[in-house]
Write a structure and sequence with these properties.
heterodimer, A: 301 residues, mainly alpha, MetI-like fold, two-stranded antiparallel sheet, B: 278 residues, 0% strand
Chain lengths: 301, 278
């Protein structure tokens, strides 16, 4: 049997592999090296606003590497608290997405195959509309004179409006709302592949539904659960738009801190150091995600 | 039976949670009053206001242009990456390639934004390219993260594709190029279309990365919207949001419907051919 072998066309194989390869090397991998290099520079008033790595003066080449930014990062506990709060918010949001997303994915996967695409569309349609608009929608709902507070006061449940917008509560609502589809999709993709005969066998042997779920469905859905959790957890740690629009003064998230260092303080080296530390913190989750995803990507066949 | 009703309830709760904010937003876009929270009668006044806003319309055109080119480039690069990963089983650095096309899926936007900006600035210093920042740098940035999404979509379709069809074509004397255009492409093009549309909407939606890498005079629509949203809720933004929601849903729904129809037909044909071949 002959295999599809594009390598028989001269240069074709090389061209196919190298064009996405070079693009991603240049625009995805190389930037991290640049960030590392700028994070050890010093901020200064110039264009670009950081000191040079090499200096050639008086027949002498000097290389200037400053770890001041990292030292500052360790000493000022604002940064530490920002990292910590980002991780905490991302962690709890992931748990909430699992709590809501798992039953939803399960319902779709167990629905008759003919209605599954429609149910999936129903879930995904809101996520195709702008992310910004979805977060914005909650600003109106949660504000002191918003619909929720109007309803609470109108029904006599509370005397006055409850402060919801610009609190961590609003951040949680926004994050779960915006990232829920990222949990549902990989979970559904996993659950729909399960072999129903296993479940039937278990129930024929007298296992209760909850036992069947815990001992068969849940372990089998491990990869979907990991992929979904990483798709929520990792981007939320670096989230900027949601804490900016829905969060309050006590909401200290690292994405927002980095943004302010960069745009308000124009301190590029500090922003670079913050980004680098964020990448290091997220490295293990990212590697876990890549492994699971690679299994899916290259998977079977 | 009990667990079934529980999951059902959660499902409908999930749907309600997803749609309610949108519905409220759309209703209040027809509010006559300036205050968003107090209903002051029905009016389409704010829609006229949006359409009259020159700055907003200009930003929309810029965004559409960037999204069009980014989606096209990302689709092509995603197709090549998928062929490389799925079909060319062994080559040096294959693991790195599949790593580089999956990592952007989860990488926080601020990191992609800040690192690309620093790259552009350093490159400009070192080799003079890119000469300045603007729509060209936004295009590069958007293409880069969209390649990841487009590879996921295309490769999952390419993997499902029955290789015996391509082998059959080659056994019948078709060249690899002819096989690709006559057999592979007609089967996977719905995936190419969904990859393009996904990249298009992602590019149209991005505010964080574009804020970092754009230059003067190249404000995209999300940046424009974000800067006014930061000041608070306004009925004009509600009207704009409603228009975006309707446009995106319409395109998404149509593409979903079309690709589903074609997919069903293709699968039926494939089964039929294989049966006849036996």
């Amino acid at each position: 049997m002959r295999r599809i072998d594009l390598s028989r066309i001269p240069g074709a194989r090389w061209g196919i592999i190298s064009s996405p390869y070079l693009w991603m090397l240049l625009f995805f991998l190389l930037p991290f090296a640049i960030v590392a290099r700028i994070s050890v520079a010093e901020a200064q008033f110039s264009i670009p606003p950081y000191s040079a790595l090499f200096n050639w003066a008086a027949d002498r080449l000097t290389i200037e590497i400053s770890f001041a930014n990292f030292q500052w990062l360790m000493e000022d506990d604002t940064y530490f608290r920002a990292y910590w709060q980002s991780i905490r918010i991302a962690f709890y949001s992931t748990l909430m997405c699992i709590a809501i997303g798992y039953p939803v994915a399960y319902t779709i996967a167990k629905a008759p195959p003919s209605v599954q695409p429609t149910l999936l569309l129903l879930i995904l349609l809101p996520s195709w509309t702008s992310f910004l608009i979805r977060v914005y929608a909650w600003m109106g709902l949660l504000s002191n004179r918003g619909l929720i507070n109007q309803a609470l006061v109108g029904l006599g449940i509370t005397d006055g409006p409850i402060q919801m917008l610009n609190t961590n509560f609003a951040v949680y609502v926004g994050v779960v709302y915006a990232y829920l589809p990222f949990m549902i999709l990989p979970l559904y993709a996993n659950l729909v592949k399960h072999d129903n005969t296993l479940l039937e066998a278990a129930s024929d042997l007298g296992a209760r539904k909850i036992i069947t779920f815990l001992r068969i469905t849940l372990p089998l859905s491990k990869n979907g659960l990991i992929a979904g959790s990483m798709l929520v957890f990792i981007p939320v740690v670096g989230e900027y738009v949601i804490p900016e629009l829905l969060g309050g003064r006590q909401t200290l998230m690292i994405g927002k801190v980095l943004w302010q260092e960069f745009f308000n303080n124009r301190d590029w080296p500090m922003a670079g150091a913050l980004a680098l530390v964020m990448i290091l913190i997220l490295l293990v989750p990212i590697l876990i995600f890549m492994r699971v995803q690679q299994k899916e990507l290259e998977g079977r066949r | 039976m009990k667990s079934l009703t529980f999951t059902r309830c959660m499902f409908w709760f999930g749907i309600l949670f997803l749609y309610l904010p949108m519905v409220v937003l759309i209703i209040y876009s027809f509010n006559a009053g300036r205050n968003v929270q107090v209903w002051a009668g029905f009016s389409t006044h704010w829609y006229a206001e949006v359409l009259r806003d020159r700055q907003l319309i200009a930003a929309l055109w810029r965004s559409l242009r960037v999204a069009f080119f980014s989606a096209t480039a990302a689709m092509l690069l995603g197709l090549l990456a998928s062929i490389a990963i799925i079909r060319m089983k062994r080559f040096r650095g294959r693991g790195l390639l599949s790593g580089m096309v999956t990592a952007p899926l989860v990488m926080p936007d601020v990191i992609i934004g800040v690192s690309l900006l620093m790259l552009f600035v350093s490159l400009q210093q070192a080799i003079g390219w890119p000469a300045g920042r603007g729509l060209n740098t936004v295009f590069i940035a958007h293409t880069t993260f969209c390649v990841a999404y487009s590879t996921v979509v295309i490769s999952s379709r390419l993997r499902e594709l029955d290789e015996s069809l391509e082998e059959a074509a080659q056994d019948l004397g078709a060249t690899p190029v002819a096989t690709f255009f006559l057999v592979t492409l007609p089967i996977i093009w719905p995936a190419l279309l969904s990859a393009w549309l996904l990249s298009f909407t992602l590019s149209l939606d991005d505010v964080v990365i574009a804020s970092f890498v754009t230059g003067p005079g190249a404000t995209t629509l999300p940046i424009e919207v974000f800067s006014s949203v930061r000041l608070g809720v306004s009925p004009k933004i509600n009207a704009l949001a409603t228009m975006i929601i309707l446009a995106v849903s319409l395109v998404a729904f149509t593409s979903w419907y079309v690709t589903r129809r074609i997919d069903i037909r293709n699968r039926r044909l494939q089964v039929q051919y294989l049966k006849e071949a036996e």
